[in-house]
Amino acid sequence: MGIIEAKKLIFEYIRRDEEGNVEGITRAVDEVDLDVKQGDFVAVLGHNGSGKSTLAKHLNAILYPTEGTVWVDGKDTAEEKYLWEIRQTAGMVFQNPDNQIIGQVVEEDVGFGPENMGVPTKEIWERVEESLKAVGMYQYRKHSPNKLSGGQKQRVSIAGVIAMHPKCIILDEPTAMLDPNGRKEVIRAVRALNQAEEITVILITHYMEEIIHADKAIVMDKGHIAMQGSPREIFSQVERLKELRLDVPQVTLLAYELKKSGIALPDGILTYEELVEALPFRQKTDRILNG
Amino acid sequence: MLRDITLGQYYQTDSVIHRLDPRVKLVATIIFIISLFMVDNVIGYLIAAAFLACMVKISHVPFRFMVKGMKSIVFLLLIAVIFNLFLTPGEPLVTFWKLTVTKEGIRLAAMMAVRLVFLIIGSSLMTLTTTPNNLTDGMEKLMAPLKRLHVPVHEVAMMMSIALRFIPILLEETDKIMKAQIARGADFESGNLIKKVKSLVPLLVPLFISAFRRANDLAMAMEARCYRGGEHRTKMKPLVYHKRDRTAYAVLLAYSMICIYFGRFFKI
Q: At the top level of CATH, which class does the domain A38-62+83-231 belong to?
């Protein structure tokens, strides 16, 4: 069994009118099966309203399934006695950095999680130091979070979660409110954690560029899992992605269009380097240049 | 920039007073205020003045910062003085029209003025030397016995520190909404008072909505980080009394004894 597993997960929002009568039921997540192995980097994609954030909130026991089950590290999230263990095992980073930083000083915010868990004071300081170093924010430990950039704030939020020593981090669109530089900063920090610390990462996003490093990508649409596989497999189905209203990275799109107009290229090209390598005339010119 | 505003009025410098435990400073301020109201002769006030002057001196905070705090109470001070001056019955000295100034009136007015001025200087000395964060921590710890009476001490302290953290964020947001509304033709400047208050509605409604949304997000983020109230919680920066704090308590005890002895029972 993986670190996170979901079986036939269904979640329904009940819409009510002003008097509180039930107006209708919306299925935000519909029969989703999920199996994430320890150490994996899983990206969950989908346009707005596809149910990806709702799914994420189930993995941290913020929402409970209407039907079906979610296990985090073998523990059923619906059982109340596991609540705090689950929240500690699966840490969560949210979209808006301003709304999740509690401390008035960076280090105090990072210490908030361990404080809640009842970690002894000395160990809190060790954890704060190590997690701030892991995201490269150690030199800002005495700063006020209000004076940091968006990317830095989000890295502080990530440090705040790592300080709780989770096995898994769920990031719910952590880059949606950041500029391109901040996005890169955050994704770099997340990848480093995944590779160096072997923390399982579940990244919810709608930026396609962010998933190319993932081990596995899941595309959601209307609460269902519409596609899943390696990023390369996903990106080779450009038409299908367009149907799901998702933007393909420019390189992939270019490669796809080139291929369609008759140039021999492999499917699912993800980076500029790959495209340059794969282009046939590049091979030809190389051959000419090298004699 | 709105981001740079300092809350409370903390004055950043290094001094013994700054390093003292916030609990000591809170207790000291309370004792000092009580001593001001216990004392009723000149010697008592001289002792209080000397004590206050010493504290100001070793706090390394420029005196003008304390005077700043006084500006806001000038009005209150005037009212207190005038009422005491004219409305105290006793031996009449001067009479204007229907108002009589009495000897007791002058005495009481002067005492009231001195008390209020000392009170403001004393309490601003505390806020100038303690960060708001430290202050809430100190209050939480001091009030801890009230938990037995089911007073939610930890929760109140947490609310205060969250409020402090969000004030700059909400100020910035107000600024943003204001600019957005001005860009669409809203007018916050002209008109009489009623019109001005009315013009604030398009500012306050979005501000409140956003504040509620933030509160909701924050609550979720806190829960996700295992926050479950004050029980079982450890502190990253626990308040511990040092030697200097014990010395400060001793000084405080000596001060209050001297001040009350001379200020209340010593007759000239």
A: alpha beta
In this complex, is the C-beta atom of B250 within 8 Å of any C-beta atom belonging to chain A? no
Flag if A112 and B227 touch (Cβ within 8 Å).
yes
Q: Choose among A87, A119, A147: nearest Cβ to B234.
A: A119
CA B174-B176-B180 angle, to 5 degrees, is: 115
pLDDT tens for residues A192-221? 989 988 899 999 988 888 888 899 999 998
ipTM: 0.84
Average of pLDDT values for A241-269?
82
Residue of A nearest to B235 (CA): A115
Is any Cβ of chain A less than 8 angstroms from the Cβ of B89?
Answer: no
Distance of CA B18 to the CA centre of its chain: 16
Distance CA A143, CA A141 (A): 6
Mean pLDDT along residues B193-208: 87
Q: How far apart are CA B51 and CA B250, in angstroms?
A: 14
Residues of A in contact with B221 (CB under 8 A): 92, 94, 99-100, 102
Q: Which residues of B touch A125 (CB under 8 A)?
A: 236
Cα distance between residue A175 and residue A96, in whole Å:
9
B141-148 long-range Cβ contacts below 8 angstroms, 24+ apart: B141/B23, B141/B239, B142/B23, B142/B26, B142/B27
- Using a CB-CB distance cutoff of 8 angstroms, which residues of chain A are in contact with residue B214? 96, 98-99
CB contact under 8 A, A60 and B224: yes
Which pLDDT does position A163 carry in this prediction? 93
Contact across the interface for A161 and B225, Cβ inside 8 Å = yes
* pLDDT of the residue at B266: 67
Look at residue A5 and give its three-state secondary structure. Answer: strand
Domain ranges for chain A: 38-62+83-231, 249-291
- What mean pLDDT is predicted for residues A99-105? 88
Closest-CA residue of chain B to A172: B221
Q: Check residue B1 and give its pLDDT.
A: 38
Round the average pLDDT of chain B to a whole number and report it.
Answer: 84
Q: Is the pTM of this model over 0.95?
A: no
Are A247 and A208 a contacting pair, CB within 8 Å?
Answer: yes
The pLDDT tens digits of the residues spanning B58-100 come to 888 888 877 776 777 788 888 988 888 888 777 777 777 777 7
